[in-house]
């Protein structure tokens, strides 16, 4: 198959962050050349959520999410939540995120993080949007919150990590699971083992760029074009051609985020 048959969707990137933000035109051009048809640009604060919407309005292949990263949960006020709720009504917004729990860095207390997350889940419910969920070292805390949210919750565990039981619990809740560039690292066999737990119809790929550049370009600023390296890694793990991996993950992304 020719390179042009490859179709990829980067389901989590930070085009609204330096160094990508100052170079969006070239970054998106390189992404298209690598087969990327959509980039989901993720908000981590009010300002970056607004910037994500601005980029989505400017570039047809970009969609936005709005949310506050759990590390910044101390900034979450009722007023901020109301503001994000209003932004979530914008037609370019395809998810609430990234939101979640991060007990690795103690920027915000677990209690504040959990309170903020419950507020964001309420917005996702009201706006009928999926969640882009960040979870680091908080696996046992996240699952009960998602369970309490009740049936019909939609979303993705972005930059998958954690014990197999966490991934299985997320799948049991109907969530998708997205792998980032760190799945390609030589010292990440446990991460690669998680890939086999995820059925074809729940698998997503992302860059989390400019962070976590995959192995061949590790150490450089990451960008959406490099999602192709993650796609190649997952295709090898599954024993399928990368074009097929691209097709099935793109179909999943379109279904979850209702991309058109
Ligand atoms: Zn994250
Ligand atoms: Zn991110």
Considering the chains and any ligands shown, give keywords for the structure.
about 260 residues; alpha/beta; TIM Barrel; 9 helices; globular; binds zinc ion
Structure description:
The chain is of the alpha/beta class. The chain has 9 helices and 8 strands. Strand 5, helix 5 (139-148) and strand 6 form a beta-alpha-beta unit. Helix 2 (46-58) runs parallel beside helix 3, helix 4 runs parallel beside helix 5 and helix 8 (227-238) crosses helix 9. The model has no long low-confidence stretch (mean pLDDT 96). Bound molecules: zinc ion (ZN) (2 copies). Residues 12, 14, 42, 98, 208 line the site of one zinc ion (ZN).
Structural class: alpha/beta
Q: Ends: how far apart?
A: 25 Å
Number of domains: 1
Tally the beta strands. Answer: 8
CATH class: Alpha Beta
Strand order of the largest sheet: 1-2-3-4-5-6-7-8
Q: Average pLDDT, to the nearest integer? A: 96
As for the CATH topology, it is TIM Barrel
The tally of helices reads 9
Note the beta-strand portion: 15-25%
- Unreliable spans are none
Report the biggest beta sheet as strand number plus sense, adding barrel if it closes. Answer: 8 strands, parallel
What's the helical proportion of residues? Answer: 40-55%
Shape: globular
H/E topology pattern: EHEHEHEHEHEHEHEHH
Using only C-alpha atoms, the radius of gyration works out to 17 Å
- The CATH architecture assignment turns out to be Alpha-Beta Barrel
Topology of helices and strands:
Blueprint: E1 8-13, H1 24-33, E2 36-41, H2 46-58, E3 62-66, H3 78-87, E4 93-102, H4 110-127, E5 131-136, H5 139-148, E6 155-157, H6 164-172, E7 176-179, H7 189-195, E8 203-205, H8 227-238, H9 242-257
Parallel strand pairs: 1-2, 2-3, 3-4, 4-5, 5-6, 6-7, 7-8
Bound molecules: zinc ion (ZN) (2 copies).
């Amino acid at each position: 198959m020719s390179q042009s048959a490859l179709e990829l969707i980067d389901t989590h990137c930070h085009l609204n962050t330096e160094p990508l933000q100052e170079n969006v035109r070239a970054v998106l051009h390189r992404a298209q050349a690598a087969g990327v048809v959509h980039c989901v640009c993720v908000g981590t604060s009010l300002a970056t959520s607004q910037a994500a919407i601005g980029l989505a309005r400017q570039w047809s292949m970009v969609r936005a999410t709005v949310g506050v990263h759990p590390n910044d949960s101390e900034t979450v006020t009722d007023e901020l939540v109301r503001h994000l709720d209003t932004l979530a009504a914008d037609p370019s917004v395809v998810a609430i995120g990234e939101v979640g729990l991060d007990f690795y860095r103690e920027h915000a207390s677990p209690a504040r993080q959990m309170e903020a997350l419950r507020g964001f889940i309420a917005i996702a419910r009201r706006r009928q949007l999926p969640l882009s969920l960040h979870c680091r070292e908080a696996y046992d805390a996240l699952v009960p919150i998602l369970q309490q949210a009740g049936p019909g919750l939609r979303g993705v565990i972005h930059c998958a990590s954690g014990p197999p039981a966490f991934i299985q619990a997320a799948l049991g809740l109907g969530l998708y699971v997205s792998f980032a560039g760190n799945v390609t690292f030589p010292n990440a066999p446990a991460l690669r083992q998680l890939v086999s737990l995820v059925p074809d119809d729940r698998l997503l790929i992302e860059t989390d760029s400019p962070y976590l550049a995959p192995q061949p370009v590790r150490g450089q600023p990451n960008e959406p074009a490099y999602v192709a390296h993650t796609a190649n890694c997952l295709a090898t793990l599954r024993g399928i051609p990368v074009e097929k991996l691209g097709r099935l993950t793109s179909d999943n992304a379109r279904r979850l985020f209702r991309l058109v």
